[in-house]
Amino acid sequence: MANTFSNDEVLLTIPMRPDMELAAAKLASVIAESMSFNDDQIEEIQLAMIESCINAFEHSRSPDQSVVIQYIIRTNELEFKITDQGIGFNPTNKSTRRTNQPDLHPDMRKRGWGLEIMNTLMDSVDIMSGENGTTITMVKCKTA
Amino acid sequence: MANKFDIQIRAEHEYAVLETAGYLNDSLGERLSKEAQELIEKGYTQLVINLDKTALINSIGISILIEIIEALDERDGTLNFCGLSATQERTFRMMAIAKYAGIFPDEKAAIADF
What we know:
Chain A is an alpha+beta fold.
């Protein structure tokens, strides 16, 4: 499933099937470990990767039902591009997944956390979304 | 990719501990919610969720944890978490979960808080 096309990049295509986000997270973990990211950073990368894949699974309505993930290895940072060919989405809209029950505590809402988790755990997150699909670009920098 | 998960439950006189193993997503979350609801209906209002064997968690799984916190809130109960990784704890604090549930390093400390 993984396809290496240069010394510094790895390409992975996953189907939009339950738990396939774990495959993307596992590969991210392997690459980050090979670059000597520390354990906390590797976990942060995995959680952000899981959220980005779930975002595509839930929102994209992609006709090919797949997500392409590009892992770009640089000296002191790892970049991820998570791309779907779906209908795009508005990053400011909160997800309505799973439950529409009102939140008991507004500051502890039950939905719409994916992008905030990515932003919290990664050094940068950029979203390009339009009618031909969405690409989320995330960068994690190595710390000493 | 099979996601192997499990929930161990230890119900004591005044509290119960739910220990998860595996990826906490919607599947494990729904099972956890069902087990927690059954304990609450039996009268347990002091619960500990031990995440020591749960290395990965997603936002859907966390939303189910919030539902458990809310269910206990409605009965003046308490939910304490333990065994979180540093990243999980950071995420829980960002999501305001630490305001409405306890976060402790281990099961002993989580139980002692009741």
